[in-house]
């Protein structure tokens, strides 16, 4: 069957107005061209749709049965086209993101707020996650893109550097180092350390840095949540090493945080995309805002 939408549209308009003349005007066609389209549709379907004489145009019985079906088909097609245009013009759509908790809590909220000011009709779904879970969500296309760190080479993923997240040492308020501005990494090995669980990008960075300096780090406490680390520091139980983007660190004014030197610990924050996949227009717009943002 070789049925075209323009033929269906011509049939529906002729049927609605019972007039080839009126339909031709509305469709901006000549009457002979319209007649050809109706004839081609009838040939494709193998049935006659109209009875036509010098005085009137009437639907055949089969034409009357076909009209609601073809009207529904045409309406659904028009709705799809309209939705696609709305999405292209950023008046409709959803952006799905998976991001590290520290980035999701501090970097993304003001950016999303600015994006929503420009595109209030776009819905943004933000999932805070970690490490390989972010990568898996991008691979499975459960999200449009991810924001992670410590990304291993992967043929299914593309990465774009965004910024560097510098680690800081969070010390108890009564600690002798509380008034210091900076602390050397090898000095931290002498302190009871509160570190994130193994497998997190923060922990991987810290373990590599100590190993490069010839040290095997044995933390006093290992935690899953940064808020737990801050609570342990507040109780005087040790020094935590946390990313500067951590909301827990930014909100804790009573606890001093020191720069770490020799070496400075920098965690690269990276945009993670599915290789070879185009983004929907809304996701592309937010991605462009992210890549042009400066930390």
From TrEMBL:
The keyword Transcription regulation is assigned to this record: yes
Pfam families attached to this UniProt entry: HTH_1, LysR_substrate
- What CDD domains does the database record attribute to this sequence? PBP2_LTTR_like_4
Domain HTH lysR-type, residue spans: 3-60
The alphabetical list of record keywords is: DNA-binding, Transcription, Transcription regulation
Q: What InterPro entries does its record include? A: HTH-type_LysR_regulators, LysR_HTH_N, LysR_subst-bd, WH-like_DNA-bd_sf, WH_DNA-bd_sf
Name of the protein? LysR family transcriptional regulator
State whether keyword Transcription applies. yes
Instruction: Give the CC-aspect GO terms.
Output: cytosol
The family assignment reads:
Belongs to the LysR transcriptional regulatory family.
- Which GO-annotated molecular functions does the record name? DNA binding; DNA-binding transcription factor activity
């Amino acid at each position: 069957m070789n049925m075209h939408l323009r033929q269906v549209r011509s049939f529906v308009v002729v049927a609605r107005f019972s007039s080839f003349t009126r339909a031709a005007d509305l469709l901006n066609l000549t009457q002979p061209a319209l007649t050809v389209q109706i004839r081609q549709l009838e040939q494709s379907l193998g049935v006659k749709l109209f009875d036509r004489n010098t005085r009137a145009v009437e639907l055949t019985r089969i034409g009357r049965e076909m009209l609601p079906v073809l009207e529904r088909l045409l309406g659904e097609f028009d709705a799809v086209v309209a939705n696609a245009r709305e999405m292209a013009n950023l008046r409709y759509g959803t952006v799905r993101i998976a991001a590290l908790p520290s980035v999701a809590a501090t970097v993304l909220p003001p950016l999303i707020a600015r994006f929503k000011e420009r595109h209030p009709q776009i819905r943004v779904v933000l999932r805070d996650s970690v490490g390989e879970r972010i990568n898996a969500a991008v691979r499975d296309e459960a999200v449009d893109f991810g924001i992670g760190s410590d990304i291993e080479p992967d043929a299914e993923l593309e990465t774009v550097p965004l910024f560097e997240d510098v680690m800081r040492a969070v010390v108890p308020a009564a600690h002798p180092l509380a008034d210091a501005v900076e602390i050397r990494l090898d000095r931290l090995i002498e302190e009871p350390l509160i570190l994130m669980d193994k497998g997190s990008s923060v922990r991987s960075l810290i373990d590599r840095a100590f190993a490069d300096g010839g040290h095997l780090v044995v933390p006093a406490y290992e935690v899953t949540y940064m808020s737990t680390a801050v609570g342990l520091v507040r109780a005087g139980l040790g020094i935590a090493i946390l990313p500067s983007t951590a909301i827990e660190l930014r909100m804790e004014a009573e606890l001093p945080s020191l720069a770490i030197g020799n070496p400075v610990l920098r965690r690269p924050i990276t945009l993670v995309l599915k290789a070879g996949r185009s983004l929907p227009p809304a996701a592309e717009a937010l991605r462009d805002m992210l890549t042009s943002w400066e930390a």
